[in-house]
Description:
homodimer; alpha/beta; Rossmann fold; 7 helices; 22% helix; 26% strand
Amino acid sequence: MCPAAVNHGDERGYIIPIGGGEDKNTHPVILQRFVELAGGRDANIVVFPTASRLEETGTLYEEIFTKLGARDASSIPISTRADCNNPEFADRCSQASGIFLTGGNQLRLSTILGGTEVAQMIRRKNAAGTPVAGTSAGASIMSEHMMAGGESDQGPSEGGVVLAPGLGLTNAAVIDQHFSQRNRLGRLLSAVSLNPFLLGMGIDEDTAAFIDPHGVVEVIGSGTVTIVDGSKMSYTSAHSAAFNQGLGMIGLKLDILDEGCHYDLNMREAFPPTENDHRVCSI
Amino acid sequence: MCPAAVNHGDERGYIIPIGGGEDKNTHPVILQRFVELAGGRDANIVVFPTASRLEETGTLYEEIFTKLGARDASSIPISTRADCNNPEFADRCSQASGIFLTGGNQLRLSTILGGTEVAQMIRRKNAAGTPVAGTSAGASIMSEHMMAGGESDQGPSEGGVVLAPGLGLTNAAVIDQHFSQRNRLGRLLSAVSLNPFLLGMGIDEDTAAFIDPHGVVEVIGSGTVTIVDGSKMSYTSAHSAAFNQGLGMIGLKLDILDEGCHYDLNMREAFPPTENDHRVCSI
């Protein structure tokens, strides 16, 4: 599903996929930045713990966001498709100044929220300017084409990835998480091989891609964001390889972005940290 | 160490790094091709089992090469630096039409053979036209800058790779093996970050890079050869990152080559299989 259209005079809200395992205590820079984007002391944050099977997940994030200065943070206990018909939930979501999707299993998010009024509300809210952040499964669900599963710990291969329709807050990239920690470049490459119009975005733990209204990513956190651009690929064996066979792919562009790097999703171009980040170009 | 100089009128022999786990029975295409390059029915192959601690390694390859049609195949039992002074060994090596380095631990190869007459003999023989193949550790040792160790299963990181001087049959690339199987792209990227003049070459199991006298690689086998080219990298955090921190690297070129693909190490350019390989460019 394409992102919801932005109405005249509006500006799309930030989209903030987080690679899971974000620091919640010592240096919670990612969650702090999200609270600020949601309005800081005026923030009214709604948490969807739907991806998680743990009772305490919603409460945990309510406490964190309140501690980080949000005026209000409340979780919406949706765990079945029937829950999505509760008009109170859509109403609470409509008033949010920030929306957060917890980790868990992204197929719970897509199968429970998919096609409901709540999903539409999240999409419309984002198109109207409300920032939406999600960690782990909550990051993957943001894509139009969602990384639903696949093999970690192997190179790109035929059948090595399972895609499913996601929430479609962005259609620029397919998003994977726990990326370096779980060795997922292979399955990200498998996804890109299927149709190189897709950018592959792999986000490490404790790392986030803050995607601004113009489609420019800023990387924040202790790890890296890996971008695979297959648009200049001159050859792939993806259409002829046997199941599980390793894929040939010639002409991929690979950018690995650490904190302070930017990436323009429209131009497909990466930028190093500015001098204010106390880094310089080394080459 | 740079490759030994090629004398006027000579042509360098093939260099054939194999990613380990090559098929030895059902479809031994890699070892068969090596035997053919070594002279086929006239081949006189010398096997160095030095990297291995297993008694039977040398004998195993003697039997395989004989079965594949070599006239003679004998292993040279070097397991200490003192063994390298045995004039008989250098003499046998000097008569070889093909040289094979088994798997094991590449640091055994570099610490036992390094700087000896036997190492010089292998280098000079290759410069004079003798093909040298090596699998697993025997592949890594071929580089001037040898992948000696490092973390598998993580992204590129500061301190994530250990290099050591190798045999120096090629200085075009640092070679890693068991590549997809052991998730070694991270450490290969770490190696490239240290000095992007190096190409990174990661070879899967049952896969070989046949490097011809002109520096053109042909990929043979059931897996892929991954080439990382950092020469156009516009930014890396490698000089400023803390130990174990993930590295930023902008502008890497990534080619993943399956069977029949070629790669020109001098031009740094990849080529898909030709039509004779029954493949076509898909994009």
